[in-house]
């Protein structure tokens, strides 16, 4: 049963948007070229249809420009501010920290009240309000004592450090929680709606249960209502059949892509279409089963275990945890146009979040202090990279 709280009754004009497709310890730079995946294993392209579009080069590059900040505690979400600085959430501490993008100086804004960090839960994704210039609201997805929920908090810059976050206003609640598979990525789409990737909390059946919020991509108004134009009447569910969605990104034509943890065989990159079923637990990876939407690319978990994704330079860039690498997935429409390439393999350890930094640059966070990594001196860190 779907449980949600609508914090503010919304009076909205109809919003119509058709999404035509579419879920190392050292500080040295990468080699000149990335490792190329075997078509039979990592990043297996999945055929489909694509409109005539410009195709990016088959091979790309990654250059680490600098380490922006070090000494971060279990960083998870990352949100660039309008002035270029960065906000980063700490999964375990439940805090949000501002990072000066030039000097790397860190200022803790405060703690988000109500976070209950355990297992893979805690303070996860963050996103700025579409009206941030006027309302200074930060949206956050976190695990509470009873569920996963989305709140918004006022960022009051004029208050002393450590006291700059207001009390959380619950926008949406009732997302199933577990020791594992809490999802957690949130992002505002090109349509101004709030998208959230959820996990099935270790209870597989929830992913196929349309009345459950677990194992889904949700689409909400900023006030937490089911967004106008959603595929199922009066429901926040946008797509279903997901195991654990932790990456959301749109291309320049407003098509949504999502990364997803598999279990033992295949991790996935999916092109998201509203109302489609992405298979879990009926299928893991490409199955060809009628009624299930196959991924556009798939990897074995030891090469991926994907978290955040971003779109830049004609490709999806996918941060990998267990795989300890950054994947480049070149696209033509919603097809993979060439074999995905891996970069930074093992160089910085586990990679959690990747966010566009403008043009051909990305912000990239490591995730070595989360209990599953091997922290090096300076971990965790934020990197600035140039991609092509």
Index terms:
Neuraminidase; six-stranded antiparallel beta sheet; 388 residues; mainly beta
What does this structure look like?
- With 388 residues, the chain is an all-beta fold.
- It has a single domain (35-387), classed as TolB, C-terminal domain (Neuraminidase).
- The chain is 1% helix and 35% strand.
- The protein has 1 helix and 27 strands.
- The chain has one helix at 132-135; strands at 35-36, 44-45, 62-69, 75-80, 86-90, 95-99, 106-111, 123-128, 137-143, 148-154, 169-175, 186-188, 194-197, 217-220, 237-239, 245-250, 256-260, 267-271, 297-299, 306-312, 315-320, 326-332, 335-336, 341-343, 351-356, 361-366, 382-387.
- The strands form 6 sheets. Strands 1, 20, 21, 22, 23 and 24 form a 6-stranded antiparallel β-sheet that branches. It has a 5-stranded antiparallel β-sheet with strand order 2-19-18-17-16, with no helix packed on it. A 4-stranded antiparallel β-sheet has the order 3-27-26-25, with no helix packed on it.
- Strand 21 and strand 22 (326-332) form a beta hairpin.
- The longest helix has 4 residues, at 132-135.
- Residues 5-42 have low confidence and may be disordered.
- This is PQQ-dependent sugar dehydrogenase.
- Residues 1-25 form the signal peptide.
- Residues 72-372 form the Glucose/Sorbosone dehydrogenase domain.
């Amino acid at each position: 049963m779907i449980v949600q709280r609508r914090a503010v009754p919304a009076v909205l004009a109809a919003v119509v948007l058709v999404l035509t497709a579419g879920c190392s310890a050292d500080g040295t730079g990468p080699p000149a070229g990335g490792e190329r995946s075997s078509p039979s294993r990592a990043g297996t392209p999945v055929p489909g249809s694509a409109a005539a579009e410009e195709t990016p080069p088959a091979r790309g590059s990654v250059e680490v420009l600098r380490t922006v900040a070090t000494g971060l505690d279990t960083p998870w979400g990352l949100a660039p501010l309008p002035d270029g600085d960065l906000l980063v959430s700490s999964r375990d501490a439940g805090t949000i920290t501002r990072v000066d993008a030039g000097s790397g100086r860190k200022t803790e804004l405060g703690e988000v009240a109500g976070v209950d960090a355990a297992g893979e839960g805690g303070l996860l994704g963050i996103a700025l309000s579409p009206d941030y210039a006027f309302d200074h609201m930060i949206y956050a997805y976190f695990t509470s004592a009873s569920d996963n929920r989305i709140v918004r908090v006022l960022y009051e810059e004029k208050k002393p450090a450590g006291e700059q976050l207001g009390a959380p206003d619950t926008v949406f609640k009732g997302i199933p929680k577990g020791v594992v598979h809490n999802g957690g990525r949130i992002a505002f789409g090109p349509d101004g709606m709030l998208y959230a990737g959820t996990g099935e909390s270790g209870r597989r059946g929830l992913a196929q249960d349309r009345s459950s919020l677990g194992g889904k991509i949700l689409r909400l108004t900023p006030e937490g209502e089911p967004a106008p134009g959603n595929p199922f009447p009066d429901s926040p569910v946008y797509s279903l059949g997901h195991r654990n969605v932790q990456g959301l990104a749109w291309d320049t034509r407003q098509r949504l892509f999502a990364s997803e943890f598999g279990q033992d065989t295949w991790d996935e990159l999916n092109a998201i279409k509203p109302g489609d079923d992405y298979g879990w637990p009926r299928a893991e990876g490409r199955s060809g089963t009628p009624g299930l939407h196959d991924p556009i690319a798939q990897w074995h978990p030891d090469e991926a275990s994907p978290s955040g994704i971003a779109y830049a330079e004609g490709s999806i860039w996918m941060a990998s945890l267990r795989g300890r690498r950054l994947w480049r997935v070149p696209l033509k429409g919603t097809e993979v146009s060439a074999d995905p390439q891996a970069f930074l393999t093992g160089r910085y350890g586990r990679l959690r979040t990747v966010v566009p930094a403008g043009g051909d640059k990305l912000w990239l966070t490591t995730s070595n202090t989360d209990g599953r990594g091997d922290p090096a001196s300076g971990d965790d860190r934020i990197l600035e990279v140039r991609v092509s």
